[in-house]
Amino acid sequence: MREPDRRHALHGARALVIFARDMAAMRRFYEDILGFPLRRELSPDWIEYRVGDNTLALARPSRTAADAPTPEGSASLQLAFKVSAPEVDRCDPDGNLLEVFGEI
């Protein structure tokens, strides 16, 4: 039997998280310069904007999954994809962590 086509496990990008060291400056840029409408502010460390059908979030970098300080020069963004629940564990053959996103 043929393995399912994994390309169909993803149903689109739902959220983009940009890690911001200077939250006030980033907020001014996205609100005042780009004019993105504020969706919600969950805390001073997490702000969300509505960009079409997607969410752009600004977040202060903190710790990695291993509870170690975020390495200098590490990636400054996070992507979240809408996926079918049964497909989540099979999406990445290298075992990379995937975020399962749900509207709350």
Would you kindly provide a written description of the structure presented here, covering whatever features stand out?
11% of the residues lie in helices and 34% in strands. With 104 residues, it is mostly beta strands. The chain has a single domain, classed as 2,3-Dihydroxybiphenyl 1,2-Dioxygenase, domain 1. The chain has a 5-stranded mixed β-sheet with strand order 2-3-4-1-5, covered by helices on one side. Strand 2 and strand 3 form a beta hairpin. The model has no long low-confidence stretch (mean pLDDT 71).
- Which structural class matches the secondary elements? mainly beta
Broad shape:
globular
Strand fraction equals 25-35%
CATH topology: 2,3-Dihydroxybiphenyl 1,2-Dioxygenase, domain 1
The CATH H-level homologous superfamily: 2,3-Dihydroxybiphenyl 1,2-Dioxygenase, domain 1
Residue runs with pLDDT of under 50 for 5 or more positions: none
Distance between the termini: 38 Å
| Cα Rg | 16 Å
The main β sheet shows up as: 5 strands, mixed
Number of helical elements: 1
Number of strands: 5
**CATH architecture label:** Roll
| Element pattern in H and E | EHEEEE
Mean pLDDT: 71
**Helix coverage percent:** 10-25%
Number of domains: 1
Given this structure, which CATH class is correct?
Alpha Beta
In spatial order, strands of the major sheet run 2-3-4-1-5
Assembly state (oligomeric): single chain
Task: Describe the structure concisely for a colleague.
Helix content is 11%, strand content 34%.
What's the layout of helices and strands?
Elements: E1 10-19, H1 23-33, E2 38-43, E3 46-51, E4 54-59, E5 77-83
Parallel strand pairs: 1-4
Antiparallel strand pairs: 1-5, 2-3, 3-4
